[in-house]
Amino acid sequence: MNPNEKNKIHYIERLNKVFDYIDENIDAQLNLDDLAKVSHFSKFHFSRIFIALVGETPFKFIQRIRLERANYLLRLKPKAKITEIAFECGFNDLAVFSRQFTLHFNISPTAFKKQNIQQSNIHQTSSFKAKYFCSELKIYRDMEQLVEANIRSLPEKTIAYIKHIGSYRQNADIYEKLFNQLYDWAGKNSLLKHHPESIVIHYDDPEITPEDKQRMNVCITVPEDTEVNGSIGKTTIPSGKYYVAKFKLKPQEIPMAWNWIYGEGVPSIGYHPIDKIPYQVYPEPPKEGILTIVFCIPVKKN
Predict the structure, then answer these.
(1) pTM for the full model?
(2) Under CATH, which number does the domain 131-301 receive?
(3) Do domains 3-119 and 131-301 have the same CATH topology?
(4) pLDDT tens for residues 52-76?
C-alpha cells in the first residue's frame, strides 16, 4: 500500500468517528469545533477534508440527515406532534423545520403526516394477518418463501465494520468486495475462530436519500476487546426486543420484504418499530442466486 492510500484510510477512520458521533447526537446542537475535535483534524482544515471525501459540507450533511430522520419518524410515529419530531431531530424552530422539510421533500410536514396516516389506515385493512407469523413456509405475493418470523430478545453485539457511502442497489458487487476485505482482516487477526456473523446495516431509506449519499455498514461480530484501525471501525448493536424475519429471496425482492415487514408483519401481531436502526444478518452464502436474510427490526408492544 502506497503512502497516499494509507493517508486516505487514516482520513476515513477519522471521519467514521464523526459519522457515528452525528448519528448518536442528531438531536443536539452540533458545531464544527466539536466535529473537528472528534475527527482529530484541525478545525481550520476539517470542513475542506469533509467536503473532499463526503461531497457535502458538514452543515448540509447534518441538515440532510436530520430531515431524512424526521421523514422516517413522521412515518414511524403518526400520533406524535410535528413539534416533537422537529425537536427530536435537532431543530429548535418549528418554522425553520417546516420550511426546510418542504424544500427538501416538496411537501409540508403537515401534509406528509396526513398522507402517511391515510396510507397507514389502508395497510390496516389488508387481508394479510397474523397467519403469516409462524415457522411454516409461506408465499408472499411474487416473493420467494418467508421462512419464519417471531419476536426475540437479542443480546448486544460488538461489530467491526467498513462504511460505504454511495449506491448499493446498482452495485451489488460492493457487498462481496467489502465482506472479503473484512474477513481477510479478521483472518489476519485470528478472529475467524469466533465464527463471526455477517451483518449489513443500512442507515438511510433508499426511497428518500439520493443514491450517492446512502450510508451502509458491512459488519462482522467480534469480541468486545477487538482492536480496529484504518478503514475498519467498531461499534455495538444494542440488545433488546426484535421482530426477526427470515427470508429466502432474490436480491431484487429485498425492498418487497422490507415493505411486507413494515406494512404487514410487525403491525399484524401488535407491535410497532421503535427509533433504533434495524439490521440484516446473512447466515449463509447465496445459493443459485437466492439469498438467505434474517431481518432484525427493533420493536415494542403496542
Answers:
(1) 0.67
(2) 3.20.80.10
(3) no
(4) 788 888 999 999 999 999 999 998 8
